[in-house]
Amino acid sequence: MIKYKKLSKARSISIPKDMAAHLDLAPGTAVDLTAAKNGDLIIRRHAPTCRFCGGAENVKHYRDIMLCPLCATELYREVCGNG
Fold first, then answer.
1. 51: burial class by Cβ within 10 Å (0-12, 13-18, 19+)?
2. I want to staple 50 with a disulfide (CB 3.0 to 4.6 A). Which of 42, 57, 65, 68 is the partner?
3. What is the sign of the dihedral through the CA atoms of 49, 44, 5 and 18?
4. Is residue 48 a contact partner of residue 66, using CB atoms and an 8 Å limit?
5. CATH 2.10.260.10 fits 1-46, yes or no
Protein backbone atom coordinates (compact mmCIF):
# COMPACT_ATOMS: atom_id res chain seq x y z
CA MET A 1 0.00 0.00 0.00
CA ILE A 2 1.58 3.28 -1.11
CA LYS A 3 0.21 6.77 -0.41
CA TYR A 4 1.48 10.18 -1.46
CA LYS A 5 1.57 12.90 1.23
CA LYS A 6 3.14 16.35 1.46
CA LEU A 7 4.79 17.69 4.59
CA SER A 8 2.93 20.49 6.36
CA LYS A 9 4.55 23.88 6.97
CA ALA A 10 5.69 22.48 10.35
CA ARG A 11 7.22 19.53 8.43
CA SER A 12 4.76 17.08 9.96
CA ILE A 13 2.88 14.33 8.21
CA SER A 14 -0.25 12.42 9.09
CA ILE A 15 -0.78 8.74 8.40
CA PRO A 16 -3.98 8.18 6.40
CA LYS A 17 -6.76 6.63 8.46
CA ASP A 18 -7.09 3.51 6.29
CA MET A 19 -3.34 2.88 6.37
CA ALA A 20 -3.18 3.41 10.14
CA ALA A 21 -6.10 0.99 10.60
CA HIS A 22 -4.41 -1.58 8.35
CA LEU A 23 -1.25 -1.33 10.50
CA ASP A 24 -3.19 -1.20 13.79
CA LEU A 25 -1.74 2.23 14.66
CA ALA A 26 -4.12 3.93 17.07
CA PRO A 27 -3.82 7.61 18.02
CA GLY A 28 -0.99 7.94 20.53
CA THR A 29 0.93 4.89 19.28
CA ALA A 30 4.67 5.56 19.57
CA VAL A 31 6.76 5.15 16.43
CA ASP A 32 10.48 5.30 15.66
CA LEU A 33 11.69 7.37 12.72
CA THR A 34 14.91 6.29 10.99
CA ALA A 35 16.75 8.20 8.27
CA ALA A 36 18.21 5.51 6.00
CA LYS A 37 21.53 6.02 4.21
CA ASN A 38 19.72 5.98 0.86
CA GLY A 39 17.54 8.95 1.89
CA ASP A 40 14.42 6.94 2.77
CA LEU A 41 12.44 7.66 5.92
CA ILE A 42 11.52 4.47 7.78
CA ILE A 43 8.63 4.53 10.26
CA ARG A 44 8.28 1.58 12.63
CA ARG A 45 6.19 0.87 15.70
CA HIS A 46 8.32 1.82 18.70
CA ALA A 47 10.09 -1.03 20.47
CA PRO A 48 11.41 -0.12 23.92
CA THR A 49 15.18 -0.51 24.23
CA CYS A 50 17.53 -0.58 27.21
CA ARG A 51 19.08 2.83 27.89
CA PHE A 52 22.44 1.24 28.69
CA CYS A 53 23.02 -1.58 26.17
CA GLY A 54 20.39 -0.83 23.53
CA GLY A 55 18.93 -4.34 23.73
CA ALA A 56 15.20 -4.91 23.23
CA GLU A 57 14.66 -8.22 25.03
CA ASN A 58 12.57 -8.20 28.25
CA VAL A 59 12.97 -4.42 28.63
CA LYS A 60 11.17 -2.94 31.65
CA HIS A 61 10.24 0.64 32.44
CA TYR A 62 11.53 1.86 35.80
CA ARG A 63 10.78 5.47 36.72
CA ASP A 64 12.02 7.40 33.68
CA ILE A 65 14.31 4.77 32.18
CA MET A 66 14.00 1.56 30.20
CA LEU A 67 16.43 -1.22 31.05
CA CYS A 68 16.98 -4.91 30.46
CA PRO A 69 17.42 -7.51 33.24
CA LEU A 70 21.18 -7.84 32.64
CA CYS A 71 21.82 -4.10 32.92
CA ALA A 72 19.46 -3.89 35.92
CA THR A 73 21.49 -6.61 37.66
CA GLU A 74 24.79 -4.89 36.83
CA LEU A 75 23.41 -1.54 38.02
CA TYR A 76 22.24 -3.11 41.28
CA ARG A 77 25.67 -4.65 41.87
CA GLU A 78 27.41 -1.35 41.11
CA VAL A 79 25.16 0.68 43.38
CA CYS A 80 24.96 -1.82 46.23
CA GLY A 81 28.58 -2.99 46.06
CA ASN A 82 27.70 -6.66 45.60
CA GLY A 83 30.07 -7.11 42.65
1. middle
2. 68
3. negative
4. yes
5. yes
Q: pTM for this structure?
A: 0.59
The per-residue pLDDT for range 27-81, each reduced to its tens digit, is 988 899 999 999 999 999 988 899 999 998 999 999 989 999 999 999 999 999 8
Q: Where in the chain is the domain with CATH 2.10.260.10?
A: 1-46
Cross-strand bridge partners of residue 23: none
In 3D, which of 42, 34, 64 has the Cα closest to residue 51? 64
Whole-number Å distance between alpha carbons of 36 and 57: 24
Alpha-carbon distance of 71 to 48, in angstroms, equals 14
Please name the amino acid found at residue 23: L
Quickly list DSSP for 9-39: TTS-----HHHHHHTT--TT--EEEEE-TTS
